[in-house]
Amino acid sequence: MDRSKALVVFAALAHEARLDLIRLLVPMGDQGMAAGEIARSLGLAASRLSFHLSAMEQAGLLVSRRVARNVFYAVNTQRLGGAVGWLVEDCCMKHPGVVGCSRGTGGAQSELDKPAESPAEAETRNTPKG
Amino acid sequence: MDRSKALVVFAALAHEARLDLIRLLVPMGDQGMAAGEIARSLGLAASRLSFHLSAMEQAGLLVSRRVARNVFYAVNTQRLGGAVGWLVEDCCMKHPGVVGCSRGTGGAQSELDKPAESPAEAETRNTPKG
DNA sequence: GGGTCAATTCAACAATACATGAATAGTTGA
DNA sequence: TCAACTATTCATGTATTGTTGAATTGACCC
Questions:
Q1: Which of A28, A102, B52, B107 could form a disulfide with B84 if both were Cys (CB 3.0 to 4.6 A apart)?
Q2: Does domain A3-78 have CATH number 1.50.40.10?
Q3: pLDDT above 90 covers what percent of chain B?
Q4: Which residue is closest, via its CA, to the C1' of C22?
Q5: Rg for chain B (alpha carbons), in Å?
Q6: Which residues of chain A have pLDDT under 50?
Q7: For testing the chain A interface, which of B37, B75, B93, B109 should be mutated: the one with the most A CBs within 10 Å?
Q8: What's the mean per-residue pLDDT of chain B?
Q9: Residue A74 half-sphere exposure, CB side, CA atoms within 13 Å?
Q10: Of all nucleotides in the shown strands, which has a C1' nearest the CA of B124?
């Protein structure tokens, strides 16, 4: 997983309907769910769903296969996990703050750890030119 | 962290420059980095960077504070980790495939776990109306 | 092959997001 | 107050993305 691949995954996730889609499909495992049933479950028009499905398949987040008249879509969990892993471990270099908060979601999140002035910053007042 | 907040975070991450920004700022910790120095580091025009910075601050991914003439930006690691945690634990319900691949990024990812036909799907051939 | 169902593609439009350079606002030191 | 510096905002044009309904493709059953 590299940056550009992770980028595509995050772009694919940046949409309400697509997050709903992931949430709906993950429990179905490799079996997945037929497009029509997905559309009914999420209350989406067929063409609109198809647009999102193909975008997510392009991003590698979904895999599809035809079964009789239906096309079943399933989440490619490796790809999704890979993007998450890239973000946490490669992009954020396993920063404790990121890793810590990514495990044990529900809890504390509202309080921002407001940074306090550190010596390195105080310097700027004495070094206007750098 | 709820869906809409996570959504905003993923949207904020779905951009090359912003991933670069995260990668640049995470090692700086709470101290962060001045906008001008970020612009130089990433080779971005000031106005363009400012646009991205404010978008990410809106998303809660960055926190800023003024120090003399400079504005320092730092990653809100809790927010970032929170979005990751929501995705893995709440949205994907800690699915083993996602969790497994999200730890130990670099490794196996290319091979898709092609799903095989399951009984539930085979049914569709006998229940055309559902 | 015709009828029917499932899903995708297409064209048209609307809404967002992005990039660029000029102008503006805030801070500092003289 | 002025000049220099830092950062943001604004206006503009462009590109991308999302939505909608109609038309099309593919598969099944008779």
A1: A102
A2: no
A3: 76
A4: B47
A5: 20
A6: 105-130
A7: B109
A8: 84
A9: 22
A10: D28
Which residues, other chains included, contact A29 with Cβ-Cβ below 8 Å and sequence gap of 6+? A74, B115
> Which of helix, strand or coil describes residue B109?
coil
The domain locations on chain A are 3-78
Q: Whole-angstrom distance between the N-terminal and C-terminal Cα of chain B?
A: 37
Q: Measuring CA to CA, how many Å separate B128 from each of A69, A70, B35, B122, B125?
A: 8, 10, 60, 11, 6
Strand partners, B110: none
Give the pair of three-digit tokens for residue A26: 């993950």
Global pTM value: 0.83
First to last CA, chain A: 37
Q: Which regions of A1-130 does DSSP assign to beta strands (E)?
A: 33-34, 62-67, 70-75
Which nucleotides of strand C come closer than 7 angstroms to any CB of the protein? 5-10, 17-23, 26-29
Kind and range of the H or E element at A41?
helix A35-42
Write phi, then psi, for B14 (nearest 5 degrees): -85, 55
Q: Which residue pairs, CB below 8 angstroms and at least 24 apart, start in B68-71?
A: B68/A124, B68/A125, B68/A128, B69/A124, B69/A128, B70/A124, B70/B34, B70/B35, B70/B36, B71/B34, B71/B35
Q: Can you tell me the distance from the alpha carbon of A17 to that of A32, in angstroms, rounded to the nearest whole number?
A: 17
Give DSSP secondary structure letters for B112-129. Answer: -------HHHHGGGT-S-
Write the pLDDT tens digit of every residue in A9-43.
999 999 999 999 999 999 999 999 999 999 999 99
**Cβ-nearest to A80 among B79, B81, B98:** B98
- Write the residue in A89, A101, A121 that is nearest to B85 by C-beta: A101
